[in-house]
Amino acid sequence: MAKVFTTEITSETIESDNPIHQRLYKAYVVATEYVEGNLLEVGCGEGRGINLLKPLVQHYTAIDKIEDVIEGLKVQHPECTFIASDIPPFPIREDEAFDCVVSFQVIEHIRDDAYFLREIHRMLKPSGIALITTPNRRMSLTRNPWHIREYLPSELHQLAAQVFKHVEVKGITGNEKVMRYYEDNKAAVRRITRWDVFNLQYRLPAALLRIPYEILNRINRNRLQKRDNTLVSGIHHEDYVVTDDAENALDLLLIVRK
After folding, report:
1. What angle do the packed helices 176-193 and 206-227 form, to 10 degrees?
2. Is 2 inside a domain boundary?
3. Residue 7 domain flag
4. Alpha-carbon Rg of the chain, whole angstroms?
5. Is 62 helix (H, G, I), strand (E, B) or coil?
6. Does pTM top 0.90 for this prediction?
């Protein structure tokens, strides 16, 4: 299967990516408490959570825009349905086809986020549930040029309440070990961005920032790993926890019901 090794599409096979991979994987662990019946994953990437969620549901369907990755997943998991497509809209005509929808670290990439949520609403059966994660802007260390926008908890709640009747915003945060890595990362990023005296990271078009962002982010993660490999490699998804204090969480966890 094709591999997408970038700092934005974090890999479970790159050691310096481990803290972020475990953070992203935690969303799938949380989802095991909710999923059932027919499940749709929007933005499955390389299939980080397929083996965890697939045994819990009647059928697993996934959409992602990276066609090579989707073709590889079709070979690995022939019993599942994989669709390569840009979104929104979703390339599924049937309304109310799914009991559950999960979409992790995707909505921040979507220009029309309200349309994205309306499509999730369309896909869900009555009383169906969707779980969505996205970075908490308050905890972001720098501008991510791959993101259209990031949210504060109140902003995400307000957006979702325009589409869904039942809206809850929780957070995913970390224990002392995770937050030590976060603070180390924060200090390292500040050492890099102090040279941005003209605040170009917020003034230049995102397209111009993606290559330097990728290079510097990879260098930074590798340096953190070399400096304290025990910390970097020792973080596990169990070191991340769901919290009601979304304001101070690393990621926002949106739970909506139709």
Report:
1. 130
2. no
3. no
4. 18
5. strand
6. yes
